[in-house]
Amino acid sequence: MAKGFNTANNKKSEEGFDAAVWRKLINAPDTLRQRITLALSEILVVAIDGLVGTGWRSFSAAAYLDLLEVNAFGNYRTLLGVVSTSAPMGQFLTFRGNVKTNTATGAHPDENYARELMQLFTIGLVKLNQDGSSVTVNGAPAYTYSQDDVSALARVFTGWDFDMAGGDSTTPDFLRRPLKQFPAKHETSVVSFLGGTVAGGLGGAEAMRTALDILFAHSNLAPFISR
Fold this sequence. Notes:
Blueprint: H1 8-11, H2 17-27, H3 31-41, H4 57-70, H5 76-84, H6 87-92, H7 112-122, E1 136-137, E2 140-141, H8 147-154, E3 160-161, E4 180-181, E5 191-193, E6 196-198, H9 204-216, H10 221-226
Antiparallel strand pairs: 1-2, 3-4, 5-6
Helix pairs in contact: 2-3, 5-9, 7-8
């Protein structure tokens, strides 16, 4: 910040991010970790031009790649938890600031992350055999989830927002911190999806852990992610 990175031009710019990423991919001595980080970034996607609303796009995108790099050799279930509470992912797939259902206004939680979490990050769109071939019913693909599953899962991802520790938004530090749970905005009703249940009355963190456990145990996850 002392060298001018908090100026308006730098705060709103994406400049320098691509060059920094490729320089590291090419020159870093831990080649395998860098390759896995790149592969994970193409599965658990965050695009820099979608990191809107706060500025600091380059810093936010870099923070996300750092997160993938740190967890490159870990368990995929652990990584799902880290990604699901990351500020850049909350920005990109718009569940940051997501609030519970409001029956008075008819408002419902944003479903973007719930849908992409299933379709892109865990179980995919169609059911797979363990060898990766598609399961069919009467010659047609069998789908893994329904719109009802999306709407139900979206209720789990409510109450999460930036952790503005100290209220300081003059630096991008808050984009490196995990999202913070705000209980008053979290929906605590029973959630049923994919044949599993997230019990009612749970706090946001516990509800998320339960939902991610259901997804991680799904028979489609291994063939979909490993293909």
